[in-house]
Amino acid sequence: MGRRLRVGVVHAAFEGVQIFLGGVGTAIRGQIAALPAVQRALARHGIELVPHFIEIAYLPEHPHYDRKAFTHFRERIRETGGTFSVVPSGTTGLAADAVWGDAGLGELRNWQIASAALAGRLIDLASQYDSLVAYCHEPVFSFAPVHASLQADAAGVDITSVYVSHATAFVHEMPLPNPDRLMAESLPVHWAKVTPKVRLGSISRYMSRHLVRDYGAAPDTFVPTGNGVDTTDHWYRQRSLAEMTRVLTQQGVPVDRDVAVTFGRGVPYKRHDMLIRAAAELPGCPHPVIMSDPDLPDVRDLAGQLHVDATFITSFDRELMASLLQWPRTRVCSLSAENEPWGLIPMEARLLARDGGAILIVADSGGFSEQVTDGVDGFLHKPNDPAQLARVIDKVLGLSESERTRIRVDGARRVRNEEAWPVKIIESLRATLPDIDAVADDVLRDLSEKPRWSSFQ
Fold first, then answer.
1. How confident is the model at residue 454 (pLDDT cuts 50, 70, 90)?
2. Is residue 207 assigned to a domain?
3. Alpha-carbon distances, residue 281 vs 114, 308, 389 (angstroms)
4. From the centroid of its chain, how far is CA 132?
5. What distance in Å separates the CA atoms of residue 88 and residue 14, rounded to the nearest whole number?
6. In what order do the strands lie in the sheet with 159-164?
7. pTM for this predicted structure
């Protein structure tokens, strides 16, 4: 074996280790869990992979600070030989706040400060490695790729920065998008045309097409950075009937009726209202359960106006989510978000319900439509059409048990084969570093030889 190659990988994000807000945090935590398997597989080919996770600094008083998770994930990072560190963001460590768009991201000044601090940290880290790959997640770190690429030669280091857009001003802030955010998002998109040391992360075909069409991205500047799931996570275990009954009863979910569930942050584009509207269209529709955070007073009011009896739960409790999806009387999991950049819940739902429970229905929109083959591993419904969603729910209710079993197994198998985090990590690194590309096929074969859930065999 030739000389050992040392590769550093940085994930810079505004959430995940200290705080938890949504999909980006889930993706960061999934990567942390998957890293040991990836490190072992690469080590067999003479490549040492060392991870570093960097976030903006938060106080424990931050409304989404998660002390237990912080302790847990910081220890998991330490076990990989990596580090966790923070950079300033122009705040005291509390919520950034913003006049426009997503208050959690803050404003332009916050992004400039955090990005400059991150670039300095990247240059320092890169001196320890043959190559450093830095994934810069969201506008908070959108300036860092430019700073790092300009200074790398002067510092004598090799840094490839990947700007990963999980959403944009056009996707989530229309009809009046944040002009500062548009500018910040556009900078790495166009800087990637200037230097191959800046790339764009493609989390879905939908987002890549959007960045090309609306931001002027060059198609040859993308590398895959798709989100995945840790299929070995104990969370995907099958729960007992008694365990699920206890969890659901504690949360006020009726256990003597069929139910239909939907999940996600309490924001308009998630379209939680669609399940309520579909239930009003479908006599005999299973009891709707809407699990979201924050609360959805407008959707509650809609349920009252349409005379739909529904259960609303303001929580992201993972045990409750798992129990709802595996519960034998959960007939449908309906996810109606429009222009969803990618979304993790469709993957999670099919793994959890592989042996019984919910059949997945998603809106034929955005990244959701890429994850489901209609009638094979789930179903699609027309966006913003509650009557058509009601017809799809009715179709699912009419499936035979053997048809339901086939769809559940096919869905879980698809997620395991295509969306496991170790595969996603290697696919991204091979597109970025030739040394990893040279051994990637062998590494992927090694990673595929892992324990599998019995129902996937």
1. very low
2. yes
3. 49, 10, 9
4. 23
5. 11
6. 83-87, 47-56, 5-13, 131-137, 159-164, 198-202, 222-224
7. 0.92
